[in-house]
Design the sequence.
């Protein structure tokens, strides 16, 4: 198990290897601080909590929610029960996740979506054993901060950086941060290397390793591997994804941005536009995806690759949208 916080120990797999929604998973949501009653919660809130812990799938009437004295607590229950009902309708975490992006406006809070991806990724990489793959997978469900200076390209967890702004000392990023003008008390993180990679597993739930994402380092190749696994997991096809430095292809037919900035930049490149220096600097990674079985691609894509891109925003944040790989790939529909 990579990340205990993902909750993989609370679910089971179906015959296809997807993760089934279980009572134990729902109980974990009911015991979150936003939901779990406190000593001065009203009797109606305590009754509802106890009933849901006994039967996590129990139907809840609006009158039960209206009877809760604290309106914020009642609203929290509405959110969690709507999420529960969505999970229950689809039966698996993967099915529920994919359905979010094929049925109009999304009403599930973003934090729940990230938690679903976290859990899916934990199941997908169970037994993988490569710390670089696991660290690259964090991009799928955790916002990153990109640090670039003097040819460096480092990805660090945005929440961890924010939490450590008040701590002193430096880790492996010390000199880089100083050269970039980062205040001395901002961050202390280690860069994941071959020498310290084995220690990733003990610290996995801390998300406190930075990833060297230069083309010559392990980061881009690790993400390429995870992208291929993600595509195969959801589409049931075999693909090869490789990191690349630039796109030179007169037969360029299809691309997918892995975030909003990458989508905009790839669209511009495809249209033959010359990128500004600012946009060029925002590109964090480019990838080439090939179908290993041509029959899995739409007819127009036989023998052609799909290009994928990852880019940072103007504030140096990187927020990946893995859902773009669910509906935007030229995959032939299953019969």
Sequence:
């Amino acid at each position: 198990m990579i990340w205990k916080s993902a909750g993989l120990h609370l679910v089971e797999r179906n015959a296809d290897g997807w993760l089934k929604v279980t009572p134990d998973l729902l109980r974990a949501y009911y015991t979150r601080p936003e939901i779990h009653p406190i000593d001065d919660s009203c009797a109606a809130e305590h009754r509802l909590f106890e009933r849901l812990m006994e039967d996590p799938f129990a139907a809840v009437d609006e009158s039960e929610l209206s009877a809760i004295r604290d309106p914020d607590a009642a609203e929290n229950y509405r959110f969690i029960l709507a999420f529960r009902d969505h999970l229950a309708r689809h039966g698996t975490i993967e099915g529920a996740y994919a359905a979010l992006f094929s049925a109009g406006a999304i009403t599930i809070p973003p934090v729940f979506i990230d938690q679903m991806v976290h859990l899916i990724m934990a199941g997908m990489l169970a037994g993988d054993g490569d710390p670089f793959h696991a660290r690259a997978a964090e991009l799928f469900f955790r916002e990153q901060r990109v640090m670039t200076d003097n040819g460096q390209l480092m990805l660090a967890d945005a929440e961890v950086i924010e939490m450590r702004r008040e701590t002193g000392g430096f880790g492996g990023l010390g000199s880089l941060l100083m050269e970039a003008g980062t205040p001395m008390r901002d961050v202390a993180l280690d860069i994941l290397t071959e020498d310290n990679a084995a220690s990733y597993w003990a610290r996995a739930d801390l998300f406190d390793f930075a990833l060297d994402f230069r083309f010559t380092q392990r980061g881009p190749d690790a993400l390429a591997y995870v992208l291929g696994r993600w595509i195969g997991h959801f589409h049931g096809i075999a693909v090869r994804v490789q990191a690349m430095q630039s796109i030179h292809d007169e037969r360029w037919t299809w691309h997918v941005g892995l975030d909003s900035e990458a989508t905009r930049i790839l669209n511009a490149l495809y249209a033959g536009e010359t990128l500004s220096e600012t946009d060029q600097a925002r590109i964090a990674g480019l990838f080439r995806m090939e179908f290993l079985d041509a029959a899995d691609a739409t007819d127009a894509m036989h023998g052609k690759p799909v290009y994928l891109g990852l880019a940072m925003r103007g504030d140096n944040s990187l927020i990946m949208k893995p859902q773009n790989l669910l509906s935007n790939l030229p995959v032939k529909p299953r019969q």
User: Anything to note?
Assistant: The chain has three domains: 4-124, 151-209, 218-327. The CA atoms of residues 207 and 255 lie 30 Å apart. The chain is about 40% helix and 15% strand.
